[in-house]
Amino acid sequence: MNKTKKGLSTKINNPKNLNLIINSDTYKLAYEDISLLNRNEMRGVRMLLEITKPDLILEENNIISTIIIFGGASIAEESKTKEKIEDIKKLIKKNPSSVLLKRNINRLENLLSMSHYYQSAREFSKLASINNQNKACHSNVIVTGGGPGIMEAANRGAFEANCKSIGLNISLPNEQIPNSFITPGLCFKFNYFALRKIHFVMRSVGAVFFPGGFGTLDELFELLTLRQTGMKDQIPIILFGREYWNKIINFEYLADLGLISDEHLNLFEYADTASEAWEIIKLSNTSNNDRNTKNNKASHNTSDLP
């Protein structure tokens, strides 16, 4: 029984059917209908949401520029890698003939030899963050893929400097949990790799690539291509660890074959220490600021011409 405005009671003729109507997906507001948003036909809407949501939040947090840090998810802090090695050694004692265990310990020892990159990423992130963030605005904000390894180290450096940092996580079949050093409220989860890449690049004033695997190489060549084609403004692209990168990619050979121009070898620089990498970005930012000032003056003077 329901009461009308006049205080009279009325009987709902078909309450069971009315309940079905109200609880049907068709009766939901469109933006509250998850099953609708998950349809293939709504892919464009989902993509628009992934473009817009992070952009709005970063603007609300006064994030004016970022520095991208990429690197291997498997390169961990030295102590953690040593613990894993000890665990494998115990298993080898129980099964000394295991080829797989010996392969695993060899890989872990290689990763241990690269653990200094974790500390370097952490140190660089501190250098880039300190003195570049305040209540009014935040520049040189570290942005990573939000996962473990080098990504964790970079977010951790900013965290230890009491500064903001961003994590752009991705939804994967094997779920990647965000590292615990990202600023709460600045960790985003993406479904589309392409849109995640856009948010990596759009505010960036520099990128540092530590040793890594397919994901790191993918992002490196993506950014080099954007710079080569002029789709991205001039920013420093730093390959951290010259010895590693020279073994992985022979850029000079590409130039010798004529597949890239000699000038394209100037799209990136090498660094072997955190301070060296930071100096490259500082000098580039100063140069870009001077260039922008000159361009603004030139534009102003031109506008005064008849």
Protein architecture, described:
- There is one protein chain.
- With 306 residues, the chain is α/β, with parallel strands linked by helices.
- It has a domain at 66-75 and 120-281: Rossmann fold, CATH 3.40.50.
- The chain is built from twelve helices and nine strands.
- Strand 7 (204-209), helix 9 (214-228) and strand 8 form a beta-alpha-beta unit.
- The chain starts with a strand and ends with a helix.
List the helices and strands and how they pair.
Blueprint: E1 2-3, E2 9-10, H1 15-22, H2 34-37, H3 43-60, E3 66-70, H4 78-94, H5 99-113, H6 116-129, E4 141-144, H7 150-160, E5 165-170, E6 187-190, H8 193-201, E7 204-209, H9 214-228, E8 237-240, H10 242-248, H11 251-256, E9 269-271, H12 274-303
Parallel strand pairs: 3-4, 3-7, 4-5, 5-6, 7-8, 8-9
Antiparallel strand pairs: 1-2
